Amino acid sequence: MNITQTFYDNLAEQYDKLFLDWEAATREQAAILDKIFSDHGFGRSARILDCACGIGTQAIGLASLGYDVTGSDISDAELEQAKERAAEGGVSIRLEHADFRSLSDTFSEQFDIVIAMDNALPHMLTREDLNAAVSSITDRIRAGGIFVASIRDYDSLSEDKPPYSPPYIHRTDEGQRVSFQTWTWTGDIYHLVQYIIDDGGGLSVSKFECDYRATLREELADLLRANGCSKAEWKFPEETGFYQPIVIAGK
Fold first, then answer.
1. Is residue 121 domain-shared with residue 57, that is, in the same domain?
2. How far apart are the C-alpha atoms of 113 and 133, rounded to whole Å?
């Protein structure tokens, strides 16, 4: 089991603590993606693969809007969370264990839209792995379909290489919850430590570790074009309302 899989397996039961209101976030993010899909000519009959679905933050929200959604992830613990949360939300989602570097091993079909949100692609720590992921993903998009992904704004972060991210402080019914990350850089790779501190009903501190590569926008766009996408455009938070830059690539 690699560090990424371990990170998400361990974080699965607390992932929703990274949000003030996870259920509200699923609705808000679904609305943002729904507009992007509509702007690119797709209605809610589109078939979607969320190839880094985690606990279902995007997949569940999109399924609640009527989309035909399939979700996949390398973390079985997060897939189990997604299954439970989809059932609680009354939506139907097909969920499969899959590495997005080899999606054709799990999915023989192609999709209208493939998404990989929340900085999933920068888990690829080499250009070769990133290319393998992009090749695998674009292979599962039908002609005329699109790929939508979000990553951190590494074009800015790579200049200063900050040692931490600003904390999120969430007021809860029992007290407050603070989440923040420390980043230790080695070249373009950084080791992330995620802390979640919760003082509701007694103090608890959780710690989760993972590695990322600062993936620049032009590198990702170049790989998308090299793997069959005719264009790759970037949308920024001030345009979309989403908290990270989003790339939209047409096949």
1. yes
2. 16
Same domain, residue pair 20 and 128: yes
Query: Does 175 lie in the same domain as 244?
Result: no
In the predicted model, is pLDDT for residue 125 greater than 90? yes
Interval 140-188: pLDDT, tens: 999 999 999 999 999 999 999 999 999 999 998 889 999 999 999 999 9
Residue 50 sits in a domain whose CATH number is: 3.40.50.150
The answer on 81 and 22 residing in a single domain is yes
Same domain, 93 and 39: yes
pTM: 0.97
Residue 118 and residue 71 in contact, taking contact as beta carbons nearer than 8 Å: no
- CA atoms within 13 Å, Cβ hemisphere of 238: 1
Cα 68 to Cα 113: distance, rounded to the nearest angstrom:
10
Question: 237 is in which domain, residue-wise?
Answer: 3-153+215-250
Instruction: Decide if 244 contacts 155 (C-beta within 8 A).
Output: no
- Find the farthest-apart pair of alpha carbons in the chain and give their distance in angstroms, rounded: 54
Same domain? 94 vs 163: no
Half-sphere exposure at residue 182, Cβ-oriented, CA atoms within 13 angstroms? 6
5: left (phi over 0), alpha (psi -120 to 50) or beta: alpha
Q: What was the pLDDT predicted at 213?
A: 98
107 plus 185 within the same structural domain:
no
pLDDT band at 1 (very low <50, low <70, confident <90, very high): low
